[in-house]
Amino acid sequence: MVRLSVAGMTCPLCVTAVNQALRTTPGVISAKTNLNNEQADVVVPDDFDLQHLLAAVQKAGYEAEIMSTAQESAPSDANHPATTKEPATTSGSATTKGSTATNGAANTSKPVPAPKAP
């Protein structure tokens, strides 16, 4: 897994744009972006060129830096299903340095309007 710091995101639409840019990058197995901490977790094969991630985020209009990489047993062929575990901090909440951080993944669903009376 690769953790990116993503600068310039201000709203859920930004998260969607970054996710789409990362997920459509050839070789990316999965990507999840968090607006609250301005980070993206991306699962890629071990031999993946990380510069492709930075270029994808930049092409979407944001700036990214590689914060960390963790060796996981991701398959080297993106056509195989991912067998990696999701890190515990990508969903729900986690305590970091005495504060609670919640998942900032975008909820892009729109409210459904109430039916009109006849």
Description:
There is one protein chain. With about 120 residues, this protein is α+β, with helices and mostly antiparallel strands. It has a domain at about 1-75: Alpha-Beta Plaits. Helices cover about 20% and strands about 25% of the residues. The chain contains two helices and six strands. It has helices at about 10-25, 50-60; strands at about 1-5, 30-35, 40-45, 65-70, 95, 100. The strands form two sheets. The protein has a four-stranded antiparallel beta sheet with strand order 2-3-1-4, with helices on one face. A two-stranded antiparallel sheet has the order 5-6. Strand 2 and strand 3 (about 40-45) form a beta hairpin. The longest helix has 12 residues, at about 10-25. The termini are far apart. Mean pLDDT is about 75; it is low at about 70-110.
Key words describing this protein structure:
two-stranded antiparallel ribbon, 4-stranded antiparallel sheet, 26% strand, single chain, 6 strands, alpha+beta, 2 helices, Alpha-Beta Plaits, 118 residues
Care to give the gist of this entry?
The chain has 118 residues and is an alpha+beta fold. It has two helices and six strands; from the N terminus they run E-H-E-E-H-E-E-E.
Describe the secondary-structure layout.
Blueprint: E1 2-7, H1 12-23, E2 30-34, E3 39-43, H2 51-59, E4 63-69, E5 93-96, E6 99-102
Antiparallel strand pairs: 1-3, 1-4, 2-3, 5-6
